[in-house]
Write a structure and sequence with these properties.
Elements: E1 3-5, E2 21-27, H1 30-38, H2 40-44, E3 47-50, E4 56-58, E5 62-69, E6 74-79, E7 83-89, H3 94-103, E8 128-129, E9 132-133, E10 138-145, E11 151-155, E12 176-186, H4 198-201, H5 210-224, E13 233-236, E14 242-244, H6 245-254, E15 260-263, E16 267-270, H7 272-278, E17 285-286, E18 289-291, E19 298-301, H8 307-325, E20 334-336
Parallel strand pairs: 2-5, 3-5, 4-20
Antiparallel strand pairs: 1-2, 6-7, 7-12, 8-9, 10-11, 10-12, 13-19, 14-16, 15-16, 17-18, 18-19
The protein binds flavin-adenine dinucleotide and uridine-diphosphate-2(N-acetylglucosaminyl) butyric acid.
């Protein structure tokens, strides 16, 4: 099997944290995965599943095996005149999958262009951007039960998808390994251009199509978000907080500039980036880490910060947002310790 001992994981997490795991196992298909899980290492030592490492923060060396999912394959499993069902392996790079869909004129996923990571991680936190979440296009998910080593299928309706959440991030966290995801895409497109400046970005294009939307999203993202190859980061470090309507009204009286969005159960979602920005964190640096100067929701590892440096820094931000606004902002990034 393809094991490496005491490999630095710096290249395998977009925060560029230089920690080691006892073993790293690069897993290219299901059979390899099952053999690993049946082996002594798989049964006895802790192991952690990693895709592209773009939504995790290692706070220390990992005392077990990091299993890097590298399985590949994209295929059409069913189609009719309106829809196409596409199965993609967990290890496919997410944006390669989006590009494949757009090139083949399959619509619904174009707003999710340019998000780092893998197909297998996409349902875990129900990735979202520019008015679309991956739950909108997932049909079903094929998983391996870590205890029984049997395959199971989760239909979309059983995944408990929510904002940056799913059953795989909450009650069944670390209980299943996602093997394949089947998506339902459209052949007759209905563009979703309601989010923020997406419409503005497209205003010079007559009758835009899905490839124009993909390009517009890429352009906006490239302007706003730091490229992890240059400025190591994991995207939004925190989730946007949701508050009760009554509390929002009180806040809005004190801070009329607050932006807000409707959320389920008649609650209100605030922009964590704006709250952090209003606490004057934008551009501030400390111990090799800092808040990005264009998007306050992104923490950057500017100069070989450790996972603990980043965690401590993030806690200061959480405390200052709580002091000023009385609002708790939760981590979006998963801590591995
Ligand atoms: P990893 O970071 O490797 O893993 C994340 C979690 O998923 C871990 O808990 C891991 O155990 C679990 N996991 C991974 N693969 C599997 C599997 N096969 N089976 C079971 N569990 C698994 N996210 C958004 O939602 N919207 C955005 O717009 C967005 N923008 C980003 C921009 C930048 C610059 C960066 C760096 C990140 C951004 N993210 C965004 C966050 C990140 O890209 C997504 O969360 C992505 O889905 C993570 O994929 P990954 O393969 O890197 O997962
Ligand atoms: N804002 C500020 N200052 C900042 C950052 C933002 O005032 O420093 C304000 C903006 O002006 C805007 C509002 O906050 O009015 C929202 O900002 P933006 O549109 O950039 O989106 P976001 O809420 O910060 C979310 C997602 C992103 C996703 C974008 C686009 C979360 C936690 N983040 O960011 O996802 O790409 O919307 O849909 O929901 C990620 O999850 O890693 C991620 C990057």
């Amino acid at each position: 099997m393809n094991y490496k001992k005491f490999l630095s994981l710096k290249e395998y997490n977009t925060f560029g944290i230089d920690v080691k795991s006892v073993y790293s196992f690069f897993c290219f298909n299901e059979n390899e995965l099952i053999s690993f899980l049946k082996s002594d290492k798989g049964r006895e030592e802790p192991y952690y599943i990693l895709g592209g490492g773009s939504n995790v923060l290692f706070s220390e060396d990992y005392k077990g095996t990091i299993v890097l999912i590298k399985s590949k394959g994209i295929s059409v499993v069913q189609e009719n005149s309106n829809f196409v069902f596409i199965k993609a392996a967990a290890g496919e790079i997410w944006d390669d999958f989006v590009e494949y869909c757009v090139i083949n004129n399959y619509g619904g996923v174009e707003n999710l262009s340019f998000i780092p990571g893998t197909v297998g991680a996409s349902p875990v936190q129900n990735i979202g951007a520019y008015g679309v979440e991956v739950k909108d296009i997932i049909d079903e998910i094929e998983v391996l039960n870590r205890k029984t080593l049997k395959k199971e299928v989760f239909l979309n309706k059983n995944c408990k998808f929510g904002y940056r959440d799913s059953i795989f991030k909450s009650e069944l966290r670390n209980k299943y390994i996602i093997l394949n995801v089947t998506f339902k895409l459209s052949k007759k497109h209905k563009l979703n251009l309601d989010y923020g400046n997406l419409n503005d970005e497209l205003k010079l294009i007559n009758n835009p199509g899905i490839s124009d939307v993909r390009q517009a999203v890429i352009n906006i993202r490239a302007r706003k978000l730091p490229n992890p190859d240059e400025f190591p980061n994991a995207g939004s470090f925190f989730k946007n907080p949701v508050v009760k309507t009554g509390y929002f009204k009180e806040l809005k009286e004190k801070f009329p500039e607050l932006v807000s969005y409707p959320a389920p159960d008649e609650k209100i979602k605030l922009a964590a980036g704006q709250l952090i920005d209003l606490c004057n964190w934008k551009g501030k640096r400390e111990n090799g880490t800092g808040v990005h100067d264009k998007q306050a929701l992104v923490i950057v590892n500017y100069n070989n910060a450790s996972g603990k440096d980043i965690l401590n820094f993030s806690e200061k931000i959480q405390n200052s947002v709580f002091e000023k606004f009385g609002v708790k902002i939760e981590r979006e990034v998963t801590l591995i310790n």
